[in-house]
Structures
1.
Amino acid sequence: MTEPGRALFVPVLLGTVRQGRMSLPVARLVVSELSRRPGIETELIDLARIPLPIDDAGQAIKDPTFSSQMSRADALVVVSPEYNHGYSGLLKHALDSCLEEYIHKAVGVVGVSAGPYGGTRGIQDLLPVLRELGLVAIFWDVNFSAVQSVFDEAGALRDRAYLPRIDKFLKELVWMARTLRHGRESIALE
Amino acid sequence: MTAMICPECGIEMNHHAEKLVYPSGPHEASSVDPVLGGMIEELHTCPGCGSGASRRAEPTRGG
């Protein structure tokens, strides 16, 4: 169903800067699947392109472009690879640079790993951080296990089973984004 | 406190959230709400254009 009025803006944050990162085709796939949906605008936000200093932290290093993207967003997809059983340190660094931009907005996490667990350990560590930032996490994740075998050398999806999983994930995310937008705009805190 | 007005639409924004935040240094120590242990940031969203705004709430009284 298409909602009349303003489109929902649902950017995809690629949560790693590592050279050769296999999360890049994952993020591009999610952007592509989001783009097919009516009433949705999206874009890929590459952590490696956010110019954040590393000699300070938190909102003191807020990047105006990233802040503007988060302010405009109705929901956020975080593509989070698992490194040493956790999410990337620079993802936390970037997320911490904003706060009010996130509040009462939906978030979903796509986990990525070279091993068999699809980034689940990183997701579990990330969820309490997202909650403290004011984001509302959905109960669907997408887990890319053995990601090096999921895409071909050109970055095309080999395993089509991921498409219905992404579809379920995005349906829930969009529902939550619409509901929270209605709440932000129309339901006052008592 | 008075309602926030959207600078774009000129209409009253919806006050939908209050977030407890903590002082970033000694310069904000005097702003800490003694009852809540931090400072309250109010979040407002415009029903017309969806833009958001925030402001620091006044400390609570009592406790």
2.
Amino acid sequence: MNNSLLWQVRAFVYKHFAETTYAPSIEDTGRHVNIKLEEAGTLYKELHKRHVFFLEPETLTIRMANPFSGIPTDFRVHANGKTYFANCAWDMLGIPIALKSDAVIEAVCTESNDTVQLEIKNGQITINPSNNVTLSDCEGSLPPKSETLRSQQPLPQSDMLLVHFPLPFARWYDDLLFT
Amino acid sequence: MLLFRSEEWIERWCKRNHLARGEVLSVAQVWELSKLWYHDHLAVDYHGRTVAQAEEIFKRAGLTSAFWYI
């Protein structure tokens, strides 16, 4: 196994997510790193095995490169004029950190189905108290302003809104989709 | 890791799915954890981290219960 190529593939996958919001195909990766598809596939599988990113079962399609998700989710992150999808409530906060960017996050609360908006600005996190928020740095990728929150209840502050970690760290990789 | 607006909703979700309650952090706490965990993920020289390195991050984030350690 060529470790240099392995990490080149990893770096390309993450750069691709950051620049486009989605995963590169195995063909894109092979072309970029200048390797044959078979070798690219071997490197993808090795990176999957090392928990660097995660493939859809029995495929070479990247499902997760944390914090980025390869498929739409309930955790949308608007940053740098683009809309990214995060894998979970932790990863939705990881995207602006990884991008080193301000962001507006739209997330659905489990069970109650409330949609909440969080704003990341200058390293500070706040929960937007209403729908009428001016978001000049992300206007290109924001949802329509007429879109309303589903709950009429006052939104909790960021020290009250909660993230549930269902499994202990020792079991996170048993079933990553559930985690 | 799912987002909830209160402990009550977490209890309902756990009960409905027949699951034990795990650990619960505020969004503010997860924000601080994210800074430690994800700040270097786009660096070209990021090569993953070991269990010990991950546990060190949890410790620095103030997460000290057995839940966070192998």
